[in-house]
Specification:
468 residues; alpha/beta; six-stranded parallel β-sheet; five-stranded mixed barrel; 15 helices; 21 strands; 22% strand; globular; binds 5'-deoxyadenosine; binds iron/sulfur cluster
Length: 468
């Protein structure tokens, strides 16, 4: 039996980064990544608990492996991520095919646990189950283990050799009433700025041009020890000095208690991209209060206006929840008004999904009917699509700096559009500092370089142009 693994990642960028780190560790242990579960002796699902739908998807996938377990028992199945922490006991008790559950805070143990289970996988009628979920008493060991895992990586995944995620914080203390994250990812803790600096430097030495700093409420980064205190803006200044680093981003920002120094740093530091992903969740103060978000729409707009004034060509992204408990038509209209005011580049929007264990699940009824949630979501996305299209169209004629990622995987506009470069060249894809996706014809050798592209046309999701 070959040492092969299949990994599938659901959910946020944190999960994507965790998966990438696990892939690296498994490869070092001699495992080869394969594209289907059928070919794999180790199967890993990195899961998300933010909405019920995400959990249901994984439960279906796990169920589909039952037959293979009953007939051959020739694989190790590990469920990791937020769902492993939230539903680990159920997974271990009710699903014999699940061998390992590992929560996000113990992900550093996964590769060695998998290897152990792999060596034991055949022959034994009752598989030994490995339960690696976080326990409060283990925090120091977990931090040390996670630090080792984060710092271990030499280069990012093969698909995007020029861009890498770097975690700067773990956990969340905000306890928004609808959200499961603080319950499964634990309390906020900020990594040492020197560790972050070393990790970014190493990645840049190995060819990375763009770093995205990650945290659930990333702008709340706050590290203190005897040498002093570092906030998000301090970290941006520190990392900005790294030679060879071309772009720095950070996601996702929390609007409560927003440290305005961060905007000053964005305005001043040319490598920091003019892009702010700052979820509002709702445009109604009454909803924000019920969501336990600790800011008002007026305060949110202050941040947006300051950022727009100080940071040239800044673009915004937002998250919204439709049909949260008690949301009236009027609340929903206020959300639409906010979207019109901010004119986001793009929005991520979701129907409210009750998460057992959260404050909202206990205290507030899920009282907006499904069809109303659906209609509000569709209306919101429709409005956003219109705004994106209008604002993208206004960019036609301008020249933008684009970091070339490589060939576009699904070629847009088969014949190209009038004025695009030589269509015998491959169609490349890249991003602007403001996170606009740009498609143009160019040579493969441009991958990893920043080029100037004149924008010719636009859809709501993509800009089309030619290299100048
Ligand atoms: N239901 C729907 N959406 C949610 N989000 C978080 N919790 C829930 C929930 N219970 C959304 C928020 C957050 C994004 C990552 O997921 O908009 O910003
Ligand atoms: Fe969840 Fe709120 Fe923390 Fe975001 S800030 S992870 S929505 S609790």
């Amino acid at each position: 039996m070959q040492k092969t693994f299949y990994i599938e990642t659901i959910g946020c960028q944190m999960n994507k980064l965790d998966s990438e780190l696990v892939v690296g560790e498994l490869q070092n242990l001699g495992y080869q990544q394969v594209a289907t579960t059928d070919d794999a002796s180790v199967i890993i699902y990195n899961t998300c608990s933010v909405r019920q739908h995400a959990e249901d998807k994984v439960l279906t996938k796990i169920s589909q492996l039952k037959k293979r377990y009953q007939t051959s028992r020739d694989f190790v199945l590990a469920v990791i991520g937020c769902m492993a922490q939230r539903l680990g006991q159920v997974l271990l008790d009710d699903y014999p095919q699940v061998t390992i559950v590992t929560s996000p805070s113990r992900i550093y143990e996964l590769a060695s646990k998998i290897d152990h289970a792999w060596h034991e996988r055949s022959g034994s009628p009752e598989k030994k189950k490995l339960d690696c979920r976080s326990v409060a008493s283990n925090q120091d060991a977990d931090h040390a283990g996670l630090e080792r895992l984060d710092s271990y990586r030499e280069r990012p995944e093969v698909d995007h050799p020029f861009m890498a995620f770097v975690r700067i914080m773990r956990g969340c203390n905000n306890f928004c009433s609808y959200c499961i994250v603080p319950h499964v990812r634990g309390r906020e803790s900020s990594r040492h700025p020197d560790s972050v600096y070393d990790e970014v430097s190493k990645l840049v030495d190995n060819g990375v041009k763009e770093i995205t700093l990650l945290g659930q409420a990333v702008n709340k980064y706050d590290f203190q020890d005897s040498s002093g205190r570092y906030l998000m803006s301090d970290l941006l200044y520190k990392l900005h000095d790294i030679n060879g680093l071309e772009r720095l981003r950070f996601v996702t920002s929390y609007p409560g208690n927003f440290d305005k120094q961060c905007i000053e740093a964005m305005a001043e530091l040319e490598k920091v991209c003019p892009y702010l992903h700052m979820p509002a969740q709702s445009g109604s103060d009454a909803m924000l209060k019920r969501m336990n978000r600790h800011y008002t729409i007026a305060q949110y707009m202050d941040i947006i206006e300051m950022a727009r004034e100080k940071v040239a060509d800044i673009s915004f992204a937002g998250d919204f929840i439709c049909g949260f408990s008690g949301e009236t038509d009027q609340d929903h209209q206020m959300t639409l008004e906010l979207i019109k005011k901010v004119r986001y580049k793009n929005c991520f929007a979701f129907k409210y999904s009750v998460r057992p264990g959260t404050k909202a699940a206990d205290a507030f009824p899920d009282d907006v009917p499904e069809d109303v949630k659906q209609a509000r979501l569709a209306e919101l996305l429709d409005l956003q699509r219109k705004i994106s299209h209008e604002d993208n169209a206004k960019l036609a004629g301008s020249t933008m700096k684009v970091l070339v990622e490589g060939r576009s995987k699904s070629p847009h506009l088969a014949g190209g559009i009038a004025g695009m470069n030589d269509s015998s060249l491959p169609q490349l894809i890249g991003r602007t500092g403001g996170d606009h996706i740009v498609v143009f014809n160019g040579d493969d050798s441009l991958a990893g370089k920043i080029v100037e592209v004149q924008i010719l046309d636009a859809s709501s999701l993509t800009l089309f142009g030619k290299i100048i």
